[in-house]
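protien #1 (seq + structre)
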Amino acid sequence: MKKFFSEFKAFIQRGNVIDMAVGVIIGGAFSAIVTALTNNILMPIINYILLAITGGQGLDKIYTYLSKVYEVNDAGEITQVVDLTKSIYIDWGAFITAIINFLLIALVLFLIIRLINSLHSGAEKQKGKYAPLSKEEVKALKKDGKTNEEILAAAAARKAEIEEAEKKAAEEAAANAPETEQKLLSDIRDLLKSQQSANKE
């Protein structure tokens, strides 16, 4: 049992499990919001438009009857009102409502993801805006009252210093390359000589 609970604890503490649980909870709440938007706001508008155009029934009353059963009144007489609980019919309105729900969820998710991506790309651009200055250096400069142009100038100056230092390092490495190669060849010769002497002995 102890091993079982330890494995269960490790499973629960995994990041992807927690993320999945949060996603399911938020997805359920989000779906309820979209359903309420569809049923309480959009569907009445669509039904009103359909009534105005056709003069008939709204989207929630669009049925194709396969078998009709009419209601019977208290006197035992058959009325002209269809008993939906006993009739067999295709509910096109519910189907169209489900499609509208799906399209709305897809549209809202697209807008949310688009907004998050734009914010993320904006943050990345802002992050690299003052490179190679660190975040702390930028904060210190802003605290000192430096303007955005002055911070950008400081970043450009730092970048130029880094490029100059890299250029000098590359030139020094190129200048020292022959000496390094000569030293390496000398070390190899000494090693071979010592190996030959050891073999003769």
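ok now protien #2
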Amino acid sequence: MIRQVEVLRVSRIYGATPALRGISATFLPHTITLIEGPNGSGKSTLLGLLSTAIRPTTGQILWHPFGSSPELARPHIGWLSHESLVYPDLSGIENLTWSARLHGLTPEALDPLTDRLHLGSFARRPVRTMSRGQRQRIAIARALLSRPSLLLLDEPTTGLDREGITLLVRIIREEAERGAIVAIIAHDLELGTLLGATSLRLERGQQISPSISPHVEGS
């Protein structure tokens, strides 16, 4: 279980382009952080760093109590990327069953999720036949599958109708209430208001507003 995440003076550079510049922040249990900012500000890079998919160029990320070891932290992370990243020729249930096996879970672990996310008969169809919102629900279910202690969501409302967004807000609140650390990227600032989220705003790779731990190197 991840009890706290510390981002310490982290920068990420792609070639000659800095995506993030010396950011430090702390993410705590029972909290929801909305990572906001214009396109190209480094939001997805920060989420990728928190997910262990990307390594910092400089600085350090600590997933307590696992320290700086991404391989130890990874089983405790649920990540919804900007793309749904589900296999199009498999059904939604087959995608989730495959993910469950990767986590050492039995197919019975899917039952609470199918009810919680209202995965109706569409979940038994091939993903390629689904609407964008239906694919998004499958991807959200996959992120929640292992009851992660660090939940990372990149534009989770993509494709969802009003009913789906209402359902998502309730689920995110429930995840934070049970003790998860939740970080979300969203252009819709109303989502942050609905969730009572703390704001972490980025511009040009730098943090320009307070977060839980608002220190930025070189600002």
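Strands lie at 4-14, 17-27, 31-36, 58-64, 77-80, 150-154, 181-185, 198-203, 206-207.
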